[in-house]
Structure formats: C-alpha cells, structure tokens
Write the structure tokens for this entry.
Amino acid sequence: MAQPRASSANTRFAQFKLVLLGESAVGKSSLVLRFVKDQFDDYRESTIGAAFLTQTIALDENTTVKFEIWDTAGQERYKSLAPMYYRNANCAVVVYDITQAASLDKAKAWVKELQRQANESIVIALAGNKLDLATANPSKRAIETADAEAYAKEAGLLFLETSAKTAENVQELFTAIARKLPTDQAGPRRGAPGIRGVDMNRTPQTANLNGQGCAC
Ligand code: GTP
Ligand code: MG
C-alpha cells in the first residue's frame, strides 16, 4: 500500500469514523480483519460489545484516508449499544450474508435506522458477504445480486458483494467509501466535521480496545 508522501505540499490527510452493522455471523469482523490485516479465520468468535481498529489507505498519490473503525456486535443483546457507535460516524458498512435471506431484512432495518438517526451526510455501503460460498455452490445463494442492487440504488447506498475469505471486493469496498467522503476538504490545519489536520508522521496501525471480541 502506498504511504503518504511527507514531502509533498499537496498531500491531503483525512480521517473518518466508520461503523460496521449487521446481523451476527454475517462476517463484519472478518471483513475488518481482511481489510486491516489481510487475514481470515474460519472460526471467529462472536464480537462482544464492539472492537476498535484503524486502517489507512492511499486513495491516490496525494490523498490519504484513515478509517477509525468500530466493529459492532451483531447479537441482539448488544443492539442498544449501536447508537453509541454510529453517532457521529461519517460512514457505515451494513453487512448481510448472501446465503441467509433474513440477514438482508436485518440490514435494511439498520439502513433505515441510520438514515433516521445518524449524521445526515453519512455515506452508507451495503455489503453482501460470503460471495465465495455462492461462487463455489450457486444453490447456496439466497439473495440475488440484482435484488440487493436494486434496493441499494433506491436507498442511495454503495453496494458490493464481498468475500472476507477470498478478499474479493474487500479493498474495493473501503476504497469506494473513501472516494465518496469529502476528502477534498482535507488539508494541513484545515478542520471540518470528521476531517482532521495532517499528521504525516502517523503510520497505519491497529488497535483493539476491548480485547474481548474481535481479535483483529
Ligand atoms: P458478530 O460478531 O457475532 O456480530 O458476527 P460477525 O458479523 O462479526 O461475523 P464473523 O466475522 O465473526 O464471522 C462469522 C463466521 O462467518 C466465521 O466463522 C467466519 O469465518 C465466517 N465468514 C465470515 N466472512 C466469510 C466469508 O466471506 N466467507 C465464508 N465462507 N465465511 C465467512
Ligand atoms: Mg464480529
């Protein structure tokens, strides 16, 4: 991955808060683990509470975007915590499992909640995960791509089918989000909601605040 050029006067650095939402076991933590560490676990423990990680991507040679990622727990008992994580989020990835029809209904409910209660300008992406399962065995697919795509278009969402397992479309998902965010307002010592000043000494890093759920 390209790193920011500290010597370039044109280099822009923008920082955004991203939240992942979706039913338990759809692969939220796995998508984050793939994005942040390029790894995958066949047996992941369900997230407890939420996990925090960061990842930095170079959009082009002049623009660097850092995501502060809140990977929430999908189990019902943690649902009431979600507003704490999506409040002030600049972007959200709402995940469903393309082999589980009910998981899309749950994703739609999250989208509705975000559109009602999150930042007005929030960028929302819908990710249909576990694409590898349908590629290996088409009969496992429960949600047609065209149906999810039509819903996403109507609701104004970015949309991609992904596989945390094979990495298909994972980088593309986060890059597409970064491209929709207002990076043009970023720059040295210029502030805007969700966008902070340049700190070229920063390097990509990861962290897990609770150490219990996502071991990313
Ligand atoms: P909660 O933390 O309970 O909300 O679940 P989660 O959405 O974070 O799901 P998690 O990432 O823990 O993944 C659940 C299970 O699905 C794990 O066994 C993963 O290995 C598996 N999994 C995740 N993504 C994929 C994928 O793209 N393909 C396949 N085949 N399995 C996946
Ligand atoms: Mg998880």
Summary: The chain has one domain: 10-189. The chain is about 30% helix and 25% strand.
